[in-house]
Design goal:
13 helices; ornithine carbamoyltransferase activity; single chain; amino acid binding; Rossmann fold; 12 strands; 354 residues; five-stranded parallel sheet; alpha/beta; 3 domains
């Protein structure tokens, strides 16, 4: 039996910027989407097309609506287990992954450096093979991107980058979902990055142009993004007709920007550089002075944890700040990543306008 099911989002969802409706069903089952990510690794968004990233955001919105707004129980990962390797401490990555995987019926297993010391007490190759025999996927929060590459090469299960010194793809998915909810569409937005040329900026550079977003990034001299990342980002901008601007002037990067974004100036492992970095980043604090040159509809993002020298309280706690919805969306986006890499589930909500 063919029938149409159309569900309008409730007022709370509308206030969050959703404009989605449920799609057509055949015999009670959602029509299959052409994008198939099952079995893939997520090491960097460089390896994913714009349509594939949009699919993960679509799935994130679908799960958030069905579970949070409608109160449905979706045991999509029942019987599955997740290995979680954490060389670096974490609040949002650990909580979002553990609670999200469990909410979908799966079992997450948290492993610290006290439990598993990558490449030291056991080779990366052996670790990958053992984990492949006992879990359905691995999320690893590590220092070196090369460790993730080896795990992915040797494992027979999906490997997800929970953060590395080079990339933080699951954070950027949460950022984009937050902006999608707020603005209704990502295409045409100008992202203004003010801070370090770090893993967050690298992940934005590997994906923003694929949505038709422009990027203006300001970093201090000596703290620019990796040249190889910049070269590829320039290629993406050319292919997608977007603008990429790199500067050392924070106000220049903020000018006309819809979204002001910053991050910590001192990442884990850089503590000994604190004094030098604080000096180099003088003038990079995001304030209302910065916002004055931004677009009239400006918003603010920070992946947390935040330090006052990076952004003052007036901006951080303002109505324009989306940092706490951004933090919550870490949960819905990592759930979508797990579902897309481990199952054949298709979203029931109509695909949003990106």
């Amino acid at each position: 039996m063919l029938f149409n099911l159309r569900i309008l989002l409730n007022n709370a969802a509308l206030r969050n910027g959703h404009n989605f409706v449920v799609r057509n069903f055949r015999c009670g089952q959602p029509l299959q989407n052409k994008v198939q990510l099952k079995g893939r690794d997520l090491l960097t968004l460089k390896n994913f097309t714009g349509e594939e990233i949009k699919y993960m955001l679509w799935l994130s919105a679908d799960l958030k609506f069905r579970i949070k707004e409608k109160g449905e129980y979706l045991p999509l990962l029942q019987g599955k287990s997740l290995g979680m390797i954490f060389e670096k401490r974490s609040t949002r990555t650990r909580l979002s992954t553990e609670t999200g995987f469990a909410l979908l019926g799966g079992h997450p297993c948290f492993l610290t450096t006290q439990d598993i010391h990558l490449g030291v007490n056991e080779s990366l190759m052996d670790t990958a093979r053992v984990l492949s025999s006992m879990t359905d996927a691995v999320l690893a929060r590590v220092y070196k991107q090369s460790d993730l590459d080896i795990l992915a090469k040797e494992a027979s299960i999906p490997i997800i980058n929970g953060l590395s010194d080079s990339y933080h793809p699951i954070q950027i998915l949460a950022d984009y979902l937050t902006l999608q909810e707020h603005y209704g569409s990502l295409k045409g937005l100008t992202l203004s990055w003010i801070g370090d040329g770090n893993n967050i900026l690298h992940s934005i550079m590997m994906s923003a142009a694929k949505f038709g977003m422009h990027l203006q990034a300001a970093t201090p001299k000596g703290y620019e993004p990796d040249p190889s990342v910049t070269k590829l980002a320039e290629q993406y901008a050319k292919e997608n007709g977007t603008k990429l601007s790199l500067t050392n002037d924070p106000l220049e990067a903020a000018r006309g920007g819809n979204v002001l974004i910053t991050d910590t100036w001192i990442s884990m492992g850089q503590e000994e550089e604190k004094k030098k970095r604080l000096q180099a980043f003088q003038g990079y604090q995001v304030t209302m002075k910065t916002a004055k040159v931004a677009a009239s509809d400006w918003t603010f993002l920070h992946c947390l944890p935040r330090k006052p020298e990076e952004v003052d309280d007036e901006v951080f706690y303002s109505p324009r700040s989306l940092v706490f919805p951004e933090a919550e969306n870490r949960k819905w986006t990592i759930m979508a990543v797990m579902v897309s890499l481990l199952t054949d589930y298709s979203p029931q909500l109509q695909k949003p306008k990106f």
